């Protein structure tokens, strides 16, 4: 998978896909290697970030990283290893934001690999909320904040400081809730997670993407 050179790009905003989860409640099946419509979740999400127009896409890997490198088609993406993935999503967010240092990115569109119901349409809407390094925006579903989240570079140090355990950017966003621009996406996406065995029923096993 490589980005379409003819597609409109937002070079100042990087897509940041958190795909390191070990699927503890899925019997230790790495979430990145689950399939939906025959496509690996990590491929599906990375492609959607490219199609939305992100200038670059960084994919944070942890559990099953060797399998992802061997099986997934992620051409054009920067693969970021997070050896501390077992600490929770916060460690992956920190690793991903650190990887953007020196790239010229002024914003990061953060998405989660285990939310296949969120795709290009939602990413595109939130990406359009970027104006400069102070931008802070989030998809909303019936008014409730969800993913993806747009973090202008001015917010990265604060997010890195606050991101611990499985909270990701939640604590930082709560502290800065008045600054967040909510972008309604409930008409184009479904924000469910693939967390447990029961959730696997949402993944269609075959067919074309």
Task: Give me some keywords for this one.
single chain, 209 residues, alpha/beta, two-stranded antiparallel ribbon, 6 helices
Short description:
With 209 residues, the protein is α/β, with parallel strands linked by helices.
| Mean pLDDT score | 90
Rounded Rg = 16 Å
Task: Count the DSSP helices.
Answer: 6
Poorly predicted regions are none
Helix vs. strand class: alpha/beta
Oligomer: single chain
- What pattern of helices and strands is seen along the backbone? EEEHEHEHEHEEHHE
Note the beta-strand portion.
15-25%
User: Biggest sheet, strands in spatial order?
Assistant: 5-4-1-6-8-7-9
Would you write up a description of this structure?
With 209 residues, this protein is α/β, with parallel strands linked by helices. Helices cover 24% and strands 24% of the residues. It has 6 helices and 9 strands. It has helices at residues 41-52, 65-71, 89-99, 120-127, 156-162, 170-175, and strands spanning 10-19, 35-36, 39-40, 54-61, 78-81, 107-112, 136-141, 144-152, 181-184. The strands form 2 sheets. Strands 5-4-1-6-8-7-9 form a 7-stranded mixed sheet, sandwiched between helices. Helix 1 (41-52) packs across helix 4 and helix 3 (89-99) runs antiparallel to helix 5 (156-162). The longest helix is centred in the N-terminal third of the chain and has 12 residues, at 41-52. The mean pLDDT is 90.
Question: What's the arrangement of secondary structure elements?
Answer:
Layout: E1 10-19, E2 35-36, E3 39-40, H1 41-52, E4 54-61, H2 65-71, E5 78-81, H3 89-99, E6 107-112, H4 120-127, E7 136-141, E8 144-152, H5 156-162, H6 170-175, E9 181-184
Parallel strand pairs: 1-4, 1-6, 4-5, 7-9
Antiparallel strand pairs: 2-3, 6-8, 7-8
